[in-house]
Amino acid sequence: MIKHRLKGLLRDAWALGLYHTGLWRVADRLAPRRLLVLAGHCVEDPAVNGDLPADMRISRSRLTQLLGALTSRFEAVTVDEGWQALQAGSGRSMVALSMDDGYRDNLTVLPAVLEETGARATVYLESRALLERRPNWSHGYFWLLAEGGLRPVEVARAYMAHADDEDACVRLEQLLLEERASAYQVKRVLKYQARREERDRVLGQLVEERGGDLQALCERIHLTLAEADEAAAAGLELGGHTRTHEVLSTLEAEEQAAEIEGGREDLARSLAGGAPTTFAYPFGRRWDFDGASEEAARRAGYCLAVTTHAGVVTADSPAYRLPRLMIDEDTSIPQAVVQAAGGYLLLERLGLHLLE
Ligand SMILES: [Zn+2]
To answer: Is residue 167 scored above 90 in pLDDT?
Structure first.
């Protein structure tokens, strides 16, 4: 814990030092060729995503500031363009924005921000939400908390009352007994312990009982196929993000292949621009995917896969485990600039890893 805090302090001090003295320019010249990939979900648009969790949204003004600070200093690319340039030996100091899941604000708000800042972006699409208009389970859960009037404790109790799902129910009961059934903890059980079919069935039933409509929700929050094509025509790169957004490491290898390869086939068949070339793991932490996921992404025909672990991509980064910088309202501009300038890559060469 102390080590973790010390690392955070050092990381901030290094960023502020390089940023305010202008020494980030020296780092930029000395560091290896690189690509910083930012990762978010939604740009705030009350009509589209007003009831989604706050940590999934970034305000238009903050995103504009952040992207402007980067595109005025570094070359703006999509994820695919940046990676191809690194492989070809041509790119030097690049920055890309990526947005996961395919929310409608990526069309209603994002293109104007990209135009204003000159940034480029890649949007990672869940094919079932795009094509069948069925959102993943987490949106049923978020709806129950935001619109359905339930507290996390009540969702846990309702789940236990309705689900034939022993592992998840034992874990939820334990959380209730320990008075730890927070929104975060209940979500963790539904994400990692619950049986998929039971979880989807029960959450769907609970939403319906409270007058919710998941298909209508999907229409409001997720891009349609025509809108995704429109976004691509406006210059966004479209990438794959599985069919249904499960934690891949909880699935058997064949199920992972169905999610990853199947998701790419769905997109290849449907999108005007054809098959996507880049892929993002759902959730993206190193315990959320495994070797079988990497293999499935490669076999599916994706040239790379991005995670949600911090870092900067270089030409020799492992193609199916590329790092990204998660962004939100509190993302520090000096941090982002110094990361894009390769300031931390120089320290890593000296054996000092400050980003994780
Ligand atoms: Zn996602």
So the answer is: yes
**Ligand 1 centre from 282 Cα, in Å?**
5
Give 248-302 pLDDT, tens digit per residue: 999 999 999 999 999 999 999 999 999 999 999 999 999 999 999 999 999 999 9
Residue 73 shares a structural domain with residue 119: yes
Contacts of residue 273, defined as CB under 8 A and 6 or more positions apart, other chains included, come to 229, 232, 238
- Quick one: 106 and 152 in the same domain? no
Beta carbons of 286 and 309 less than 8 angstroms apart: yes
**Residues 74 and 95 sit within 8 Å (Cβ to Cβ):** yes
Number of structural domains the chain divides into: 2
Residues 226 and 81 in one domain: yes
Four-residue CA torsion sign, 265, 57, 7, 17? positive
Q: Region 39-56: what's the mean pLDDT?
A: 95
CA–centroid distance, residue 233 to ligand 1 (Å): 23
Q: Is the per-residue pLDDT at 31 higher than 90?
A: yes
Query: What is the 241 CA–ligand 1 centroid distance (Å)?
Result: 7
Output the pTM of the full model.
Answer: 0.96
Ligand 1 centroid, distance to 101 Cα (angstroms): 5
Distance 100 CA to ligand 1 centre (A): 5
- Residue 240 C-alpha to ligand 1 middle, in angstroms? 10
| Domain identity same for 100 and 128 | yes
CA of 108 to the centre of ligand 1 (A): 19
Domain boundary among 194, 217, 240: 217
Whether residue 62 is predicted with pLDDT greater than 80 in this model: the reply is yes
